[in-house]
Amino acid sequence: MTRAKPEDDDWNSSKIHAFTFDDDDDEFTKLKESKRAVSSILVDDDDDDDDDDDDDVEKVSWSGEPVGSISWSVKETASSIRSGGEHGFPKINTAPSLPKQGSGYSLSSLFKASTRVYAPELRKPKSECKDYFSDWSPEETVKRMRKGKVYSLERFRSLQDKLLLLDEAVSAHDGNVITAVLIYLKKSLSKEIFFQELMVREIALRHYVHYLKEMEEQKTLVELMKLPFSQDDAIHVQDHYTLLERQIIIEATDKKGEAEIFKKFPRKASILNMPIITTLYYSCFYHYGESEGTFSSPANIRSTFRISEKQYILTALGARAKLKSWFDVDSLFNTKNWLGYTKKRSPIGFHRVVDILQKNNAPVQVLKDYVSLIDDAELKLSLAQKYKCHDIVIEMYRDLKDRQQLIVYQGKVERGSHEDRKIDQLLGNMQIRWKN
Amino acid sequence: MAQTDRRDAPGLPDFSLLKRLARDQLIYLLEQLPGKKDLFIDADLMSPLDRIANVTTLKQHEVDKLYKVELKPVVSVSDQLCFLIRPRIQTVKWIADVVKSDKAVGRFRRYKIIFTPQKFYACETVLEEQGVYGDVTSDEWEFYLLPLDDDIISLELPEFFRDNFLEGDQRWVTTAGSALRLLHFLFGPFSKVYGIGRCAKMVYESWREQVEDGEKKAQNPDIGNVFLIDRDVDFVTPLCSQVVYEGLVDDIFRIKCGSVEFGPDVTSTDKSLKVMLNSQDKVHVGETQRKKEIWWEKQRKKKRCGMDIKQMKAFVAEELKGLKQEHRLLSLHIGACESIMKKKTKQDFQELLKTEHSLLEGFEIRECITYIEEHINRQVSMIESLRLLCLLSLTENGESYGIEHLLSFANLRQIGLLVEQQPGETLTVMESKVGKLVNDKTAGKLTDAFSSLAKKSNFRALSKRLMLIPKTGEEYDLRVPRDMAYIFSGAYIPLSCKLIEQVLERDGWTGFEEVTRMLNGHEFAVTGPEDSKYPQRIILVMFLGGCTFSEISALRFLGRERGCKFIVLTTAITNSSRLLESLLDNQG
Q1: Of A98, A342, B38, B447, which one has the greatest count of Cβ atoms within 10 A?
Q2: Nearest CA in chain B to A206
Q3: Which helix (H) or strand (E) holds B559?
Q4: Half-sphere exposure for A347 (CA within 13 Å, toward CB)
Q5: Contacts of B457 by beta carbon, 8 Å cutoff, 6+ apart
Q6: Of B256, B266, B258, B329, nearest to B292 (Cα)?
Q7: Whether B212 contacts chain A with CB within 8 A
Q8: Closest-CA residue of chain A to B444
Q9: Where does B163-283 show beta strands of DSSP type E?
Q10: pLDDT by residue (tens digit) across B47-87?
Q11: How many CA atoms lie less than 13 Å away from B116 in the CB half-sphere?
């Protein structure tokens, strides 16, 4: 008995263990297939049925390697790949390559589709095809299904047979057939067992999920999704439900539209199923200032869904600006520094704040407060000019000691206006050392 | 549009045969339900059907009234109802409802469902479950291939992309295999098949098995080589703004089955007009098209926003003198150009292109990010913003930030358009996880979130290795394009087309291991029975998941350069909007 090679560490090569969730379950499937293949070679009178009672006995192939070992199946795959010749075009290995486990979004065990492990010389010649449906193997059944011929799935009654049928369908890469088999399994297996098996068969699972979506069987989908695939998914699902719950509560009260604001700004649509940010915006619009204790308050939504400061300010700004609540906008940016003085700060550039305000038709009076907070001098100057914040422009030219520009700008302001006089004053100021 | 060819270029097979075959089969199926009948047609099938059999033909075979499939009660009074549909569960459910409501009021009718290109078992199950299986007859109309031009064939299956790459549903694999089988039967046998991508492999296998089981016929083959390529091998190209003429028109007006509908603002009348955009469209013959393209490029490159319409009209009047009889069509195209200019100027097209080119090149990325942020902020177009974000993500191997819109990010992550940043990389990562901004209408969409996504985009490395960005030393003369980059104004050679070019040159993937690794493998190259008579210079390229006009133009260019002809077979024509829309799942 050959010892397990280092790369076969994943395999318990001394004993073939029973199926457990923690193992790489796909290897069990592969093993089953390999077992079946080998048993049909080695034992003459072998039935197609799986022999569970043989689990304790290690099987080896005729080359002496443990059946199911990686090197054995690699050899099998190699021998099943032919190049061109009188048989026409050759088969190629269609097993999907292992997806890398980079992100948190991954199934706890990925399904690696087993490659076809039959050696070519073992393929039964077409003339020997069986005609009685009770004798149709999973392979034959799937073949018939792909061609649209008569088939029968009822004979696959044991769980093992059903799973073999499913795996066969998956390895045939035909979604139509895969879905058909899944429909059959759904009808003939309990939900728990069916879901259990799906969890370790990614391709089958995807087909089933798509089928449920199309059939609009939301309830079943939800149940399927509650299964623990990964930590991230669990959080994600939880978030989704929490949000929906909130929206239902908010919707129930707001629908009546009693408060003043609903009369002034009637809602265009229901809040249900809206994304988190849209919900936040809605809350900032209709429920601003409510205490954190209420479900509908922006503060509550912000903390429950762990919304970043940047995101929050951007959204709140949009909502308050739309309502022209300049005072609220102002408060958004107030922070106290360590000395206790209030100063303005923004996680998004003030030029962006100005942009948003301007889009909501904020008056120049309001705009100029924020323009003046822009750090970048060039940007500040250009925006000040764009939005006619004359005072700022004038002051900047004064600071830059640019007399020429100031003269040019004077041409743009109204004759006799306050700005005009201000510029005159500056131009007449002997103490300023103009650079031009 | 087919252009002036080299004299030694091979001739293309005649694909109008495909239309005749489809038409004949449809007529046969209609005749299986003798007598007057009303025909209900799936919305997606109306344009393709138009190209196969017009209303007159249908009426000749006892079709009385034509209706579009809409999920509401039918008003037809006919005794026989025929439904021509794609095999969608939703549609079949509706048909079952129609039958059941008839039953409920004791109304007896005959119902026939024609599934195209094939029926799915799930559809039959619905009929069975709804108790109407015995009341309807069903058939399959094997309409797989619609020629859109001399060298373009479409399966008209836009859902292929979403179903296969997003939902992981392999239902259309056999369909694609059958399409290939049909071409193989009519115009083959093929000699060599190259390919790359998981789906490509599956389609190849499906085709191979179908051919094995089917009739063998010796024939003078019209098509020699086949190249299968998955859409997800190259996402960057379809996300780029198109500047070739059909690409532009497609981006703005949406070309459907090779024709486009121009509204009143373009036609300068109060009517809309449908125009065929292919080589049958006489305006686009040879020189004219080239001149227009080049002139259009030149104008765009000029810094001035807003083109001079007078100049354009003058150009048309003077330089295209010989085509007075096509004047009407010409003025339509000018109208289209005007419309394009209006839209594109508004969006500051040049600034946009500059940003895209920088992204492709990997140059001044910070400026690009700022531009994208502002673009999102200005709320010009959500799809455009998303497109730019995806482009940024793909070219920079990571996630971008600043997304404040309704976006189905689970979907995007699933197919690798937005790849998670690894810590320690240069781009600033979004504070809140992308997943927070996702909204899923049904819980089912959350399933996308757990897919085993980790396909790293290696665009930068691929771009260097394959030299996809031409050197910007000399001025790129669009009048004399020297490589496929001309379809993107000299900025970028489409990755997909470059791959095809290289593999054909090397007759396989040997020596290309570095590249295939960066593309996540799944490449293959197989040879069939040797036959020296096969036409090496006619190559069928099959895009699984869609293909853009830009890529078609690039392949046409490549063909002219190499003295060979490419036939583009695609599951559907696509562009950035269609790609993103299928991700955003705007359909109910």
Answers
A1: B447
A2: B168
A3: helix B549-562
A4: 14
A5: B235, B393, B394, B395, B397, B416, B419
A6: B329
A7: yes
A8: A221
A9: 192-196, 225-230, 255-256, 259-262, 273-276
A10: 999 889 988 899 999 999 999 999 999 999 999 999 999 99
A11: 27
pLDDT tens track for A368-391: 999 999 988 888 988 898 888 899
CB A328 within 8 Å of CB A350: no
Contact B437 A276 (CB under 8 A): yes
* Identity of residue A433: R
Q: Flag whether pLDDT at B18 surpasses 90.
A: yes
Which of these, A180, A133, A174, lies nearest to A152 by C-alpha position?
A: A133
- The percent helix, strand, coil of chain B (3-state, each to 5) is 50, 15, 40
Q: How far is A398 from A392, CA to CA, in rounded Å?
A: 10
What is the model's pLDDT at position A430? 83
Phi first, then psi: what are they for A66, rounded to 5°?
A: -60, 135
Which one of B382, B452, B455 would you mutate to disrupt binding with A, by most A Cβ within 10 Å of its Cβ? B452
- The verdict on A379 touching B (C-beta cutoff 8 Å) is no
Task: Work out the minimum CA distance from B496 to partner chain A, whole angstroms.
Answer: 21
What is the token pair recorded at B175? 């369909």
Supply angle C-alpha A50, A52, A58, rounded to 5.
100
Chain B: residue whose CA lies nearest to A95 = B198
- Strand pairing partners for A85? A88
Of A174, A218, A230, nearest to B442 by CB-CB distance is A218
Distance CA B295, CA B289 (A): 10
State the Cα–Cα distance between residues B514 and A291, nearest whole angstrom.
59
Are B402 and B247 within 8 A, CB to CB?
no
Identity at B229, one-letter amino acid code: I
Task: Say how many Å lie between the first and final Cα of chain A, rounded.
Answer: 96
Tokens 């799936």 belong to which residue? B42
Which among B129, B399, B450 is the top mutation candidate for probing chain A, defined by the most A β-carbons within 10 Å of its own β-carbon?
A: B450
**Chain A closest CA to B527's CA: distance in Å?**
6
**B68 CA: distance to closest CA in chain A (Å):** 21
Question: How far lies B559's CA from each of B2, B4, B484, B508, in Å?
Answer: 11, 12, 10, 18
Comparing A310-324, A408-422, B204-218, B427-441, the range with the smallest average pLDDT is: B427-441
The CA distance from A159 to A90, in Å, is 34
pLDDT of residue B567: 97
Q: Is-contact A353 A382, C-beta < 8 A?
A: no
Between the alpha carbon of residue A382 and those of residues A385, A390, A434, B382, B467, the distances in Å are: 5, 11, 21, 27, 40
Buried b (16+ CB within 10 A) or exposed e, B1-23: bbbebeeebbebbebeebbebbb
Predicted local confidence at residue B11, as pLDDT: 83
Residues B208 and B177: their CA atoms lie apart, in Å, by 8
Task: Say if the Cβ atoms of A102 and B454 lie within 8 Å.
Answer: yes
Burial of B505 (0-12, 13-18, 19+ CB in 10 A): exposed
The alpha-helical segments, DSSP class H, found in A287-376 are 298-304, 309-322, 326-332, 350-359, 364-371
DSSP state, A339?
A: T
User: How far separated are the first and last CA of chain B, in Å rounded?
Assistant: 36
Phi, psi (rounded to 5 degrees) for B62: 65, 25
Task: Name residues whose C-beta falls within 8 Å of residue B226's C-beta, 6 or more positions apart in sequence.
Answer: B180, B190, B192, B193, B194, B195, B539, B540, B541, B542
Helix orientation angle between B349-361 and B365-378, rounded to the nearest 10 degrees: 140
C-alpha torsion sign, points B325, B327, B332, B333: positive
Under DSSP, is residue B87 helix (H, G, I), strand (E, B) or coil?
A: coil
Distance CA B578, CA B253 (A): 12
Is the Cβ pair B163, A210 closer than 8 Å?
A: yes
State the complex-level ipTM: 0.77
Q: CA torsion sign, A92 to A95 to A96 to A101?
A: negative
